[in-house]
Specification:
Low-confidence stretches: none
Strand order of the largest sheet: 2-3-4-5-6-7-8-9
Radius of gyration: 32 Å
Strand content: 35-45%
Helix content: 10-25%
Mean pLDDT: 83
Shape: elongated
Structural class: mainly beta
Number of helices: 3
Number of strands: 10
Distance between the termini: 57 Å
Largest sheet: 8 strands, antiparallel, barrel
Length: about 270
């Protein structure tokens, strides 16, 4: 009986100590990352490169742009980038431009309301250059198999930002589009006027990297540049003159393909 009582007393004395030890015991997985030894191809790395971009669905002139890009990745999932573009083909006419221009009268008939060819072509503007900044959020990244034997790392991201676009045009001769008999036109605004100069714009789109090595990637981006424009340089709202009231918010799609290089050249591996 005494042995049983002694055992019970011992158990009662040791029980708090055992419970405390169990509570203090820490799992080896506590605070461990979800994925161990992950190759972090973006975190704390600079990205620089150059490529080409092409406009999609422009009204009168397509654009083939040389597009440099510089970025810094603060983490593996968010980065800040600066992108530029200079149009190398300012005279690349769209098929719509050719169709419209072919149907315009040459000159000589004052009863025709459409512009003459000599007036229409010089006021059609085109992109000269763009410069923009963007924040990139990378929700998806991983590794894919190509043809069952080749493997490549990739990421997919969304981008948003702002910038400027410079628009250019040949411009008509002075007096060719002078307003006449237009009421309520104290500024004597012309009947046609190319919309040229620099405009503020929004920059929204998606992109992806396909890593060829740990320090080089193929970068694809599709973006929509939102800015006010009057691509034809004509009276849009029907008030008889061409001015700022004829500007309309326009979507301008650009697809670009770049080769990007990452620094430092060696990507780190997570713990």
């Amino acid at each position: 009986m005494r042995k049983i009582v002694a055992l019970l007393l011992g158990a009662l004395v040791c029980l708090p100590t055992v419970a405390r030890a169990e509570k203090e015991r820490k799992s080896p997985l506590t605070d461990a990352p979800v994925i161990r030894k992950r190759l972090e191809l973006r975190d704390k790395r600079f990205e620089a490169g150059v490529g080409v971009g092409v406009s999609i669905g422009q009204d009168f002139y397509n654009a083939l742009l040389v597009m440099p890009k510089l970025a810094f990745h603060f983490t593996d999932w968010i980065s800040l980038a600066a992108v530029g573009g200079y149009n190398m083909t300012p005279d690349w006419k769209s098929s719509f431009n050719n169709d419209v221009y072919a149907k315009l009268p040459a000159d000589g008939d004052p009863t025709i309301k459409s512009p003459y060819k000599s007036e229409a072509a010089p006021t059609m503007n085109h992109i000269k250059y763009v410069a923009m900044g963007q924040v990139e959020f990378i929700p998806l990244s991983g590794k894919i198999a190509l043809l069952g034997s080749l493997f490549s790392y990739f990421d997919f991201y969304v981008l948003a930002g702002a910038g400027i676009v410079n628009l250019a045009a040949a411009g008509v001769q002075p007096g060719a589009c002078a307003a006449s008999n237009v009421p309520n036109n104290p500024g004597n605004s012309p009947k046609c006027q190319a919309n040229v100069g620099t405009e503020l714009m929004g920059n929204f789109g998606v992109g992806a990297h396909a890593f060829l090595t740990h320090w080089m990637a193929l970068n694809l981006e599709l973006r929509d540049l939102l800015y006010k424009n009057n691509a034809s340089g004509r009276d849009v709202n029907g008030d008889g003159v061409t001015d700022a009231n004829d500007l309309e918010l326009s979507n301008n799609w650009i697809f670009s393909l770049n080769f990007q290089f990452f620094l430092p050249g060696k990507a780190k591996i997570s713990r």
